[in-house]
Amino acid sequence: MAIHIVDRRLNPGSKSLENRQRFLRRAKALVQGAVKKSSQSRDIKDVLEGGEVSVPIDGMDEPRFRREGGTRDMVLPGNKKFVEGDILPRPNQSGGKGRGAGEGDSEDTFRFVLSRDEFVDLFLDDLELPDLAKRKLAEVESEGIRRAGYTTSGSPANISVSRTVSRALARRVALRRPRPEVLEALEAELSDCSEERRAELMAEIEALKAKMQRIPFIDPIDIRYRRFETVPKPVAQAVMFCLMDVSGSMTEHMKDLAKRFYMLLYVFLKRRYRHVEIVFIRHTDRAEEVDEQTFFYGPASGGTLVSSALQAMHEIVRSRFRPADWNIYAAQASDGDNSYADGEVTGRLLTDNILPVTQFFAYLEVGQENGLSYEMPNSALWTLYEGLRAGGAPLSMRKVNERSEIFPVFHDLFQRRGPQERTAS
């Protein structure tokens, strides 16, 4: 028995539903671009509050079919200036989609307000942790759905047509329900038979029809529904190590840039991933694992030994995060200053212990507010990391001097990309 479902709902505004979906996808891209553009001048707390964005009105028109061409005669009321055959002047194109200067309001942008959740979701929509691949089915809270046979009750959307028909066929065979072919044969014989045989055939046909009515083609006891059950679903486990330099060479502006970067990273991880551990490590000439409050707001100062932070990360990985089960990431922020004698130790720790077990290592170098650091020679740490990356190490490196650069740099580091693009970054 074939089931045909016809959707007779009208498309919105008598427009093509497929065209409308294309329009919505195009509009989403425009809004995302506006969100990223406006986020460059926002503070972290401003991002969490949402706000107003504007998009070009040219891209907000929904496509539709129009009839054009041919010859038409039209009479427009109120025309006292032109007659047939006159050439109309081209409208003024300056000032967007609107009237000329002094002739009324112009309209070139579409403005609307996004809520906090909408703004953050749009900003983080195309970001991800790279190479999130290692999985472990342990201590997970996520659940998946899988098929679990059939049941006699359920939603009409879950009816199993094949199983229902097969059970109905078995029931009809068991109860000896007459087949339509038998009735057709008897009716064909009825047209060419004797009177005595005709009475017998009529009685037999009536008996078969009555039996067919007593034994329906589909009975409620035949109907079977697909059954589903929830099962534990493997969840990718990940840990992000946040390594921040808080030594005396880091000015308040540099620390502010680093903290803004980590605050944005924290929002990103908590918003997009459910099973991500975050380990905060700050260092001067010695490193310590701290809580979130101390990491962002606790005062500290001293000398600089980058290797102390990498050594602390290595010990934590070895004791708590088995590389075979965990996706390990690291984000380091520093002004690039490091002890000359510590460079070799830092490089050896990265090459031998850190990079082989990490999926992604991001280094953010913060500079002075006036931007002069771009014109100065590369720092000791930048030179070291650049040499490692030239040798094929999975390092991504960026520099920032101003607050407005934090958002684009963060988006550039964690945007969704292919393996080849990720290696080149």
UniProtKB/TrEMBL annotation:
Disordered: region residues: 82-106
Name of protein: UPF0229 protein LMTR13_06675
Family (UniProt): Belongs to the UPF0229 family.
Kinase listed as a keyword: no
Organism classification: Bacteria, Pseudomonadati, Pseudomonadota, Alphaproteobacteria, Hyphomicrobiales
Alphabetized InterPro entries for the sequence: UPF0229, vWFA_dom_sf
Organism: Bradyrhizobium icense
SUPFAM superfamilies: vWA-like
Pfam families assigned: DUF444
Superkingdom, taxonomy of origin: Bacteria
Entry's transmembrane regions: none
Keyword flag Flavoprotein: no
Coiled-coil stretches: 183-211
Alphabetical keyword list: Coiled coil
